């Protein structure tokens, strides 16, 4: 990639070299991560506070398991059980569950309020930025692009901000605390709880190796479908007039077909591998492995049956943690791509503003040597100077060399106080209808040709 080149464009170029594609994808991923980090900066303090609260709540998740293990030891001990020890174990379990619910709930509340504020801020920034963008930008970019950035992409940040940080923190804290307890019981029980994880981790790494480029193509497909929908809706009038109902939705059908083919081609080969790897960390398999290994440990005299049951319960928590981590990683990748697209919209060039704006004196509007271009190359206004007096109506008519007047109806401008005729963006005639007719210039010639054309009829040969 050349220095200064946009990484988004570099990643989309149809380069046939796999190494170049990989480099472009990595460059785009770094740019996306940077855009995401910048976009999440306003809520970073709230996120860190929520993560700290969730660490306390997640650590408390292990407390009921410890309490149950201690209660089992008390109840299985020879002789009558001590009521005080039983009540103490029950109270510890209830306390652990209460702390988990309280701190976890407060953490989610903090992140949800932060998410609402962030989404509102981003949408206001997008509206404010596009409100200052030149009209030519909207010609070059479809409304689907604006809709995706302001609605879909901003919404894609929701899970990352409101859920992912809190849930990922819990997903890391729970197994760490649980494994710490198992290592305290017996290191063999801790290793047994992790026995099936390498199979899942290896399969997951293999399935995710091309995720970045594939998601880029997936997002491009969604954008193409949105664009086709917008084009179809805006062209309904043409469809009704010219009867293209059979072909009008061809663009949407083709975009949807390409999207479906790419998605199925990417996902289908991974389904079997995903199914087998998920079975390796499923609750029945984890329980079977831990009970089988635990029986061996008990016969060897290393641990007690109560310790095996406690370790098995803790081990069954770990697979659910993997699912949460998977969703969190997926949410971060999607949010990174969304943040990159939002950043592109927020970087839209805006029209220049005066450094020394003045308050208008009166209500008269005067244009002096005004030029304007939609695309920056072709001027639709070139050196226009006009005075628009309050209480009057000015009708601008635009002409080209073919004398085509772009207006609703020529007859509707006759009552205007001032008619301005533009030719190649320049003012050629100014006046009322009567004054321009007396002038006998372009306006008068076109008016006369228009009226002669109204009498045209298509003759039908009766023979």
Automatic annotation (TrEMBL):
Which InterPro entries would you find in this protein's record? ABC1_TM_dom, ABC1_TM_sf, P-loop_NTPase, Type_1_exporter
Stretches of Basic and acidic residues bias are at 1-20
Pfam families on file: ABC_membrane (PF00664)
Q: Which residues form the ABC transmembrane type-1 domain?
A: 49-318
Q: Which of UniProt's keywords are assigned here?
A: ATP-binding, Membrane, Nucleotide-binding, Transmembrane, Transmembrane helix
Check the record and name the SUPFAM superfamilies matching this protein: ABC transporter transmembrane region (SSF90123), P-loop containing nucleoside triphosphate hydrolases (SSF52540)
Q: Where is this region: Disordered?
A: 1-22
Q: Which GO terms describe its molecular function?
A: ABC-type transporter activity; ATP binding; ATPase-coupled lipid transmembrane transporter activity
Top-level taxon: Bacteria
User: How does this protein sit in the membrane?
Assistant: Multi-pass membrane protein
Where exactly are the transmembrane stretches of this chain?
49-68, 88-114, 157-183, 189-207, 280-302, 308-327
Q: Where in the cell is it found?
A: Cell membrane
Q: Please provide one cellular component term from the Gene Ontology annotations of this protein.
A: plasma membrane
Q: What is its main location?
A: membrane
Q: Identify this protein by name.
A: ABC transporter ATP-binding protein
From what organism does this protein derive? Streptomyces parvus
